[in-house]
Amino acid sequence: MGAPVIETSGLRKVYRSRRGRRVVAVDGLDLVVPAGGVHGFLGPNGAGKTTTIRMLLGLARPTSGEVRLLGRPVPAGLPEVMGRVGAVVEEPRFVPAFSGRKNLTLLARTVGAGRDRVDAALAQVGLDGRDREHFAGYSLGMRQRLAIAATLLKSPDLLILDEPTNGLDPAGIRDIREMVRELGESGVTVLLSSHILAEVQQVCHSVSIIGEGRLIASGSVAELVGDSTLAVARVWVEDSSTAIRHLERARYRVVRNGDHLDVEGFEHPEDITRVLAAEGLYVRELVPVRADLESVFLQLTRGSALGGRSVAPWTLSGGEAEQ
Amino acid sequence: MRLLAVELDRFFSRRAIVLMLLGGLLLTALLVGTALWDTRPVTDAERAEAESQVATAAADPRLQREQQQCEQRPQDFFGPGASAEDCAGLAPRVEDFFPRNTLELARVVDNRGTVQIVMVTALLVLCGATFAGGDWHTGSLANQLLFRPRRGRVWVAKAGAVLVASTAAATVLVGGFWLALLVAAGARGIEVPSAAQSDIWWTSARGVALAVGAAVGGYALTMLLRNTVATLAVLFAYVVVGEALLLTLPIDQVSRFSLAQNVLAWVGDGRRVFDADVTCLPGLGGCEKAYVLGMGHAATYLGVLLVLTTLLSWAWFRRRDIG
């Protein structure tokens, strides 16, 4: 594992809305993204993901705090490292009246890249047959591909992708996911901002979760989903009402879910059978359900989503990306 | 230089800009065409009609009496030192009875020449504003900054492209206008006095400078306001509303602060302006309601406006958040 490619310390961004209201978009964010692999950047809508990315890339100025990209301070050191950073921020933005190739060529020329690099980037994202069409006529998937092609013009060491699969059809999502996975395996560090948890779980080695502009959790995906406190057991029992009463008395959280009960808060599944058997209730079926990233995410960001309940910062020990 | 070349490519690749420049070419051709049509050589029938009118006028006893009086006392007609030979000027000439004037380039400078310069200036303001506004509107500016994070240099490169492109466009349009008229005058055997040639040259040079300054100003203002329409609205407010407000101010020589008057004073090497607010008290000699707005004043006024706008735009662009 190399040195961090992204570091933020006490990063804060406050801006004024059009009505003059003070909005804290990012609130003292401490983020560390290690070199190598694909790092997920998760958070509910309005958590401050895009604002953070914009500050990382020098497009927005932090109100306070520090940002380092590839070891250089932002924005002062950006010119030194920007040649090694590719990024797609929000939706792809190009000149609609220019062709995909023209848009890429103009960007490539600013960094001295030639036509061969443009050809290679277009081929890599599968746009080489449609490159002379106007960007305005591109589908959302083609636009995303063009944006990723633009990031490849620089042969980046670090790729920052903000919701790259937004609005794509399933095939498009799969293609982008494969592309990201391949880039991560090729040695490029990818920061993937997304709210599609399945996507993050499939391609990311490590993840940072933010809510209300603050870091809530950070670590490898395996560590996050492997935390036993987040496990649920599905229990089928004859007299479910009595079972709920006894399980709750034993301080488990129980939710009736159709024909079964979802039980949380146990350490071992046999604890549930022991409690019920002691009351003369015999379990017909018990299925331990391992937590997935979605349940972790929802649990951690519940405070943000419900608007106001604070969530204690929770960083897993040894929170480095798995390789 | 690389960045300048890219920006020049971007400038001339904008369809709206190319269409506007073609429109400028068309309007210039129209102005040349109307100038040539309005001064087209008289036909044989028109000449015969004019000669007949000369003969009728020459036979007028009142004119003959006047001619005799002049020859007897020429100083009464032409001042001290006049001779009887000067009275030949009183005799009707056939040219005076032609239905239209011949092509006189010195006169074109003051009417169609000025109109053409104002038209080219307005067109290049639009081009500069469209060039910057397009980048903001499409969001492609953020993409460009991901490749060239030195914002100051990006601003200067774009301004340089506007400068070079508008200099070329203004030179072609203004130069083309006069070249066409000079060629037409030569073809008609009309000699252009050296004073008129000098006037044409200097007016054209001032016109090109004005148009280039306006293009850069339009670009700078749009980089500041981030929107072409906002730029046009500000210019409209400044020229129309601002000038209307100016007229209500009880200040002598208030036209010194008028954009339109200063533009005309710059193009016309000074301009005589009537000021209704000047109160001439009875008995005080030398009271003048008109005054001359000098070219130097106009240059200072327009130069200060341009420098302020560009400095503010450049400084603000270096610091602001890019959406």
List keywords for this structure.
heterodimer, A: alpha/beta, Rossmann fold, Alpha-Beta Plaits, seven-stranded mixed sheet, 11 helices, elongated, B: 323 residues, mainly alpha, two-stranded antiparallel ribbon, 12 helices, 2% strand
Which helices and strands, and how do they pair?
The complex is a heterodimer of chains A (323) and B (323).
Chain A lengths: L3 E13 L5 E13 L3 E5 L6 H8 L7 E6 L2 E2 L4 H4 L3 E4 L11 H11 L4 H10 L15 H13 L5 E5 L7 H16 L3 E6 L2 H7 L2 E6 L2 E7 H6 L5 E6 L2 H10 L3 E5 L2 E5 L4 H10 L4 E7 L3 H13 L8 E2 L8
Parallel strand pairs in A: 3-8, 3-9, 6-7, 7-8, 10-15
Antiparallel strand pairs in A: 1-2, 1-4, 4-5, 9-10, 11-13, 11-14, 12-13
Chain B lengths: L1 H12 L1 H24 L5 H15 L2 H12 L1 H5 L26 H34 L1 H8 L3 H37 L6 H32 L2 H21 L10 H9 L3 E4 L15 E4 L1 H25 L4
Structural write-up:
The complex is a heterodimer of chains A (323) and B (323). Chain A has 323 residues and is an alpha/beta fold. Chain A has two domains: 6-226 and 295-322, 3-Layer(aba) Sandwich (Rossmann fold), CATH 3.40.50; 232-290, Alpha-Beta Plaits (2-Layer Sandwich). Chain A contains eleven helices and 15 strands. In chain A, the strands form three sheets. Chain A has a seven-stranded mixed β-sheet with strand order 6-7-8-3-9-10-15, sandwiched between helices. The longest helix of chain A is centred in the middle third of the chain and has 16 residues, at 170-185. Chain A is elongated, with a radius of gyration of 23 Å. Chain A starts with a strand and ends in an 8-residue tail after the last strand. Chain B is an all-alpha fold. Chain B has one domain. In chain B, 72% of the residues lie in helices and 2% in strands. A two-stranded antiparallel ribbon of chain B has the order 1-2. In chain B, α6 (105-138) runs parallel beside α9. The radius of gyration of chain B is 26 Å and the shape is elongated. The mean pLDDT of chain B is 91.
